[in-house]
Amino acid sequence: MLSWLRRFPHDVVHRKENAGSGGRRTSSSTTWRNRSSSFTARIIRCASSVVDATANNNKHRDEDDDCPPLPLSPPDHQVDDDHGVTVVSAAQAFSFRELAEAAGNFRQDRLIGEGGFGRVYKGRLTMPGEQDQRVVAVKQLDRNGGQGNSEFVVEVVMLSMLHHPNLVRLLGYCAEGDQRLLVYEHMALGSLEDHLLRLSMPMLPWRTRMRVAHGAARGLEYLHDRAVIYRDLKSSNILLAHDYTPKLSDFGLARLLPMAASSSSGSSTRDSRVMGTYGYCAPEYLRTGKLSAKSDVYSFGVLLLELITGRRAIDATRPDGEQSLVGWAVTMFADPSRFQELVDPRLVMAMQGPPPSELKHAVGVAAMCLQENHALRPVMTDVAITLSFLAASTTTDHHHPSLRPSDPPSC
Questions:
Q1: Whether residue 198 sits in one domain with residue 213
Q2: In CATH, what number is assigned to the domain containing residue 23?
Q3: Which has fewest Cβ within 10 Å: 29, 96, 288, 357?
Q4: Average pLDDT, the chain
Q5: Minimal CA–CA distance to 388: which of 376, 380, 397, 396?
Q6: Numbered residues of the known binding site
Q7: Is residue 397 in a domain?
Q8: Looking at 143, 160, 185, which one is the last position of a domain?
Q9: Same domain for 147 and 216?
Q10: Which candidate in 225, 232, 250, 271 is catalytic?
Q11: What confidence tens digit (pLDDT) does each residue in 228-278 have?
């Protein structure tokens, strides 16, 4: 299924040189008059035109100038994977009018989130072949923002081809004129960031945190098995369903490795521009632009620390030495007697802190993911297996013989 996608040009993911530009799509000499051509061919041609424009960047042309519109309607396809997921799905093309009506004309009272892409609205939409309306999330591109049409295309391509219980499901899109909108399944509990960092939200119990970590690890494992690097893992990009099932969202920065390879092969690629979120990026990626699956593993280590501590990855309001979550935490990794200092104070005050053995294992996993040397970091398959025991534990202080690592390594 992904054989053609592996040829997808990696340079398609570029932020606009001028983030302040209106992002409006101008007329193009490239048109698609044959509407019977496949969704695959159209996306490849769109990506190729972006790469051509980037290679001839003397005039600093915007990718959007040469990127033709997405197809009116992609074909359905069936995906079978080794995780036991069978999905018949495709992103449905909608008109701007349909999505505006579904989202209540983007009224303020329908606003449920806002990020780098734009604003997200809660809506109700009748999908083709269905009679009843379903609750959806409609994300509208900020035309004055920094994310361009190429990232929009990447998100549509990725989520049309990749299906897993821990990836958010893309239901449709709109690419009408200069409007760019995405339609997702609605995630009732919002983002993990809100639950961890907003005091007004109910406290997440320890077991729930470990289940969220396990689900996020399984989502990354699935991507890495298909040679996809997520590149923007953070708590705000993890959405929670009504039962706290975590799902990775926002795939505009995702990249494919140069060849089909598993995460354990060490395959990597190089970015001309470092992208991601400060505080989550792997040190070797920041220094050299070298990107690999182990870059995601580092970001996962930061996320796991957030779940353990209830702290932000970067928090300028904290004292010197504590503003960087990783910088503060690594000073305790070599001393298990200090692990309790890492636990979220809200868990401690509620007398719901983790059993010492589980805390040791969780901190050990985070420490291994955050190794300075990327070659020493584990692959996501091993991380997911380890966290599965913590997520499934039902006793107050359960010891797992298979989870007895040596003292966590220093980073």
A1: yes
A2: 3.30.200.20
A3: 29
A4: 76
A5: 380
A6: 139
A7: no
A8: 185
A9: no
A10: 232
A11: 999 999 999 999 999 999 999 988 888 888 654 444 446 677 766 778 888
CB atoms under 10 Å from CB of 108, counted, come to 8
- DSSP summary character for residue 309: H
**pLDDT reported for residue 131:** 82
Q: Which among 411, 386, 391 has a CA at the least distance from the CA of 401?
A: 386
Q: CA 279 to CA 323: how far, in whole Å? A: 10
Indicate the residue type of 344.
D
Per-residue confidence (pLDDT) for residue 148, from 0 to 100: 66
HSE at residue 230, side-chain half, CA atoms within 13 A, is 35
CA atoms within 13 A on the CB side of 322: 7
Q: Within this chain, do residues 133 and 55 fall inside the same structural domain, yes or no?
A: yes
The overall pTM is greater than 0.85: no
- Answer yes or no: is 403 within a domain: no
Same domain, 111 and 200: no
Position 394 confidence tier, pLDDT thresholds 50, 70, 90: low
Compute φ and ψ for 167, nearest 5 degrees: -115, 135
Identify the helix (H) or strand (E) that includes residue 184: strand 181-185
Binding region for ATP: 139
- 3-state class percentages of the chain: helix first, strand second, coil last, to nearest 5: 40, 15, 45
**Dihedral (Cα; 349, 354, 359, 365), 10-degree rounding:** -110
The H-assigned helical ranges of 256-407 are 283-288, 293-309, 325-329, 345-349, 356-369, 380-392
Same domain, 58 and 95: yes
On whether both 141 and 212 belong to a single domain, the answer is: no
pLDDT digit string (tens) for 29-87? 333 223 333 433 444 444 444 334 333 433 333 333 334 444 433 334 444 444 443 33
Is 82 in the active site?
A: no
> Is residue 196 exposed (0-12), middle (13-18) or buried (19+ Cβ within 10 Å)?
buried
Tell the residue number behind the tokens 């979550």, with chain if given. Answer: 325
When divided into structural domains, the chain yields a total of 2
Domain span at residue 199 reads: 192-392
